[in-house]
Amino acid sequence: MAEASDTQGILRQNLVDAGCEQEVIQRCVELAQQKRTGEIKRILARHRQTLLDVLHVNEKRIDCLDYLVYNIEKQTK
Prior knowledge:
Layout: H1 7-17, H2 22-33, H3 37-76
Helix pairs in contact: 1-2, 2-3
């Protein structure tokens, strides 16, 4: 766990917790050291969109399963 005063450690841990790959983490740390926050924000926005895309795919899968269960229950009544 990073100390509260260890901003680089906090950044790294947050990126790990967000599911970022090691190369993305390293790039963001480098950009943070250079104070290039605009580029960090673009990288994070891309990662966020990727996570949302995965979420939406899984939501559709859950909907399909729910529909299948609904039909099975409907047929057994």
